Amino acid sequence: MDLHDRARQRCQWLPELPASASPLYKALVERLASDIASGTLKPGDRLPPQRLLADALQVTVGTVTRAYREAERRGLVEARVGSGTRVKGGQEQTPHFHHLSRAGQDSIDLSLSVLIPNPLREQQLAATLEQLSRMPDAIQTVMNYQPEQGCPQQRAQLSDWLARQALEIGADEMIITEGGQHADFLALQALIKPGEAVASAALTYPGMIAAARQLGLKHLAVPSDAEGIRPDALERLCQQQRIRLLYVMPEYSNPGGEQMTQQRREAIVEIARRHDMLLLEDGVQFVPKELRGTPLFEMAPERSLYIFSVSKLLAGGLRFGALRAPANLMPQLRAALRAQCWAPPGLMGAVACRWLASGEADAILNWQWQGLQERQALLHDILAGYTVQSHPCGFHAWLTLPEPWRAADFVRHAETRGIILIASDPFCVGSQPAPQAVRICLTPPADIDRLREGLLRLREMLDEAPPMLAPLI
């Protein structure tokens, strides 16, 4: 029996391809889709390893690899290191990552990166709405359609407030968006074509992963170290294929908590210029100006976009943000936003910009930064001796688990003790292997004593051996 026959016998799925099929990878994807639709392949079924199927079909491994990647892009299958490529469920899958709390009433939620609860926010919002209600001109303005780039007055107010935070972004340089996630999606949709490649850290914000997948982009992972994306790894990737855009969080990465040094920022900018690559800088994880480095849009204004949002400052429900972009890219962004929603909502912008411009928000922002530093200090004190990476004013921390803990088991066991966490899987780009680590968010508990209780429970778990698993036979 030759190699071809042995491979055919071992394949749990063996499609018959038309002799005239061209290109072969597309024919393979179509057959896969047909077998899933007919029920021949069921959710959870594992596809043959790529080399095995290539031997069975007498095609190149590259053909099968390309077919599997296209099938994953179309949502037919999902690939994970260690578990192979499997058929996805026919019904919508519950996302690993979400923006609403799933914690029970008695649980301590450490899973979401949200604002520290404070009734002062509600009071300030109510006062801002009351002030606007007494301004007929403002009411009339927000009732009208807005320009695609956003209300000029609101952009000027936001520009002035950002300048006070040492971020010099002109009103004409920004386009108003419905939050940071919208800015992310808008930039990718307007500037990157389906099938083109974008890159980010191998562990990155799940919203970026979702946007790239939704738009049919090739999302490539770049290894990181304690200072963020590694320039040597990025350079090698750029030499291998054309990357149109690099998504980066220089100040405080989500989830790893890395902050780029000035030298690292300069290296990333130099590579971007040499390979004509756009930079999408996510500034939603807002930190005090004295702890902030040089923004990439100041170092390379001709190719840098910058995302701002009030979700980590005022309220996530306001859905207000802005995207800074070079003038030559603004027409594409305006056209994309017009196609999506005609224009940003004027009322949200009026509320957020007046709130910021009044100066009232500064008091609660300073209170929050002080509270974040206190909570970060508490975390590092309780988890001393374990590998934890975070920012002094960060909403979360990244805990690398000691052996033999596995992230999924740790999250499940934490839930039995009333603690809700998120493991590393939702942050992994493509089929990158998930590290044995968890993200710990410090901000959902309103009471710091409640946070202390949750962290002490985690410390007890870390000090204990993982529970014994049932043996496999």
Walk me through what this model shows:
The protein contains 17 helices and 17 strands. The chain is an alpha/beta fold and 473 residues long. A seven-stranded mixed β-sheet has the order 4-12-11-10-9-5-6, sandwiched between helices. Strands 13-14-17-16 form a four-stranded antiparallel β-sheet, with helices on one face. A two-stranded antiparallel sheet has the order 1-2. A hairpin with a 3-residue loop joins strand 1 and strand 2. Helix 2 packs across helix 4, helix 8 packs parallel to helix 9 and helix 8 crosses helix 13. It is globular. The mean pLDDT is 91.
Poorly predicted parts: none
Backbone structural class:
alpha/beta
The count of β-strands is 17
Query: What does the overall shape look like?
Result: globular
What does the main sheet amount to? 7 strands, mixed
**What is the beta-strand fraction?**
5-15%
Number of helical elements: 17
Distance between the termini: 31 Å
Average predicted local confidence, pLDDT: 91
- Sequence of strands across the biggest β-sheet: 4-12-11-10-9-5-6
Radius of gyration: 24 Å
**Which percent bin holds the helix content?**
40-55%
What's the quick description here?
By secondary structure, the chain is of the alpha/beta class. The protein is built from 17 helices and 17 strands. The mean pLDDT is 91.
Architecture blueprint of SSEs:
Elements: H1 3-10, H2 24-38, H3 50-57, H4 61-73, E1 77-80, E2 84-87, E3 108-109, H5 119-133, H6 136-143, H7 152-164, E4 174-177, H8 180-191, E5 197-201, H9 206-214, E6 218-222, E7 224-225, E8 228-229, H10 231-240, E9 243-248, H11 262-274, E10 278-282, H12 296-299, E11 304-309, E12 321-324, H13 330-341, H14 346-357, H15 360-382, E13 387-390, E14 396-400, H16 407-416, E15 419-420, E16 422-423, E17 437-441, H17 448-463
Parallel strand pairs: 3-15, 5-6, 5-9, 9-10, 10-11
Antiparallel strand pairs: 1-2, 4-12, 7-8, 11-12, 13-14, 14-17, 16-17
Helix pairs in contact: 1-3, 2-4, 3-4, 5-14, 7-14, 8-9, 8-13, 15-17
